[in-house]
Design a protein that fits this description.
The chain is mostly helical. The protein folds into 4 domains: about 120 residues, no CATH class; about 40 residues, Arc Repressor Mutant, subunit A; about 80 residues, no CATH class; about 60 residues, no CATH class. Helices cover about 60% and strands about 0% of the residues. It contains 18 helices and no strands. Helix 4 packs across helix 8, helix 9 runs antiparallel to helix 10 and helix 14 crosses helix 15. The longest helix is centred in the middle third of the chain and has 22 residues. The radius of gyration is 23 Å and the shape is globular. About 15% of the residues are buried. This is TTF1 factor.
């Protein structure tokens, strides 16, 4: 089908498709459109966001079955073929012959590209190498001086994932200040976030922000958008004196403080009551996975905060209080 028709048909499943490049739309029309229509017939909506345990198991199953079908001897060879130059041609041929794209995404109502990236993250042995040693940190600094921010090249030299080397370099190059935030630092953080949000809004709807471009008027932004992932390494660079994780934590505390008008929602006796109520309400939902929970409905348990805030509070509670939580079901 032609590009305009593809974009129009995909919009039913992916509302932000108008912001996706022409080449990506063509790929999605080939890989995803028929799948999305099949899921629609079954009453299943296309999903985004965090993958569930069930979806991870389905990816594991799809990869295992494809390896059995083709005789490729490891998931790393299947998903990181460029690391094995001597087998590359054979693997590419087998992937084409046995319809790799279709097989890997079977049973998962998400865009193929997201499934593929998730599979790469799950099966990349370089993602599970623990803390960086002093020698690795020195190597990382040396490689970055030689290759700049070519994280793909550096990740191959370090045998670590792209994201891991990029984030670690961001951490070790920062002149980290661990003291209280100054007014000047907070102002820089607020300005950086506002600049990023302005750019995001303009990309999503150019007309909505054009009138603000020549003024200093504060942006009025839907509060849920403020909890979406932001480019923290870019914000870190604009702040200049804090590591990206510190910027993220400070922004979240500012946001919650503004939304709750400074009420201490998660302290002392009130904090304990809120935690207990949250656990009770979650138990009553009988959800089998975090993605099945309507977090917005649970906000009244804690206060006037976004659903994402409640979800992050539950995650911290789970990680700090439940031994071996990774081996347990959500319920």
């Amino acid at each position: 089908i032609d590009l305009d028709t593809a974009r129009q048909e995909l919009e039913e499943f992916i509302p932000h498709v108008k912001n996706i490049s022409d080449s990506s739309v063509k790929k999605m029309a080939g890989r995803d459109l028929m799948r999305f229509k099949e899921f629609k017939k079954q009453g299943i909506a296309v999903k985004f966001g965090k993958f569930t345990q069930k979806e991870n198991k389905q990816i594991q199953k799809n990869v295992d079955e494809f390896l059995s079908l083709t005789g490729i001897d490891s998931a790393e060879k299947l998903l990181f073929t460029s690391r094995f130059p001597e087998d590359k041609d054979t693997i590419h041929r087998l992937k084409t012959e046995h319809h790799f794209c279709e097989k890997i995404s079977e049973g998962i109502p998400r865009p193929w590209r997201l499934i593929y990236y998730r599979a790469r993250k799950m099966f990349d042995p370089n993602n599970y190498k623990g803390r960086y040693t002093k020698e690795e940190k020195e190597k990382l600094k040396k490689y970055q001086a030689l290759h700049g921010n070519d994280w793909k090249k550096i990740s191959e030299l370090m045998s670590r994932s792209n994201l891991s080397v990029a984030m670690k370099f961001s951490e070790i190059k920062s002149a980290i200040n661990y003291g209280p935030w100054t007014k000047e630092e907070i102002q820089k953080l607020m300005s950086a976030v506002k600049e990023v949000m302005r750019r995001k809004l303009k990309a999503e709807n150019p007309s909505s922000v054009s009138s603000l471009d020549q003024s200093d008027t504060d942006l009025w932004i839907d509060r849920e958008k403020l909890y979406q992932p932001l480019p923290w390494t870019e914000i870190e660079a604009k702040v200049g004196s804090r590591y990206w994780r510190q910027c993220k934590q400070k922004w979240n505390s500012i946001l919650v403080n503004k939304l709750t008008r400074g009420q201490q929602l998660y302290r002392g006796t009130n904090g304990l009551k809120a935690k207990i109520n949250l656990i009770k309400r979650l138990y009553e939902t009988k959800a089998e996975d975090a993605s099945e929970v309507n977090w917005d409905e649970l906000t009244k348990v804690i206060g006037d905060v976004p659903g994402a805030y409640v979800q992050s509070k539950f995650y911290k509670l789970k990680v700090s209080s439940v031994p071996l939580w990774k081996s347990k079901t959500f319920s």
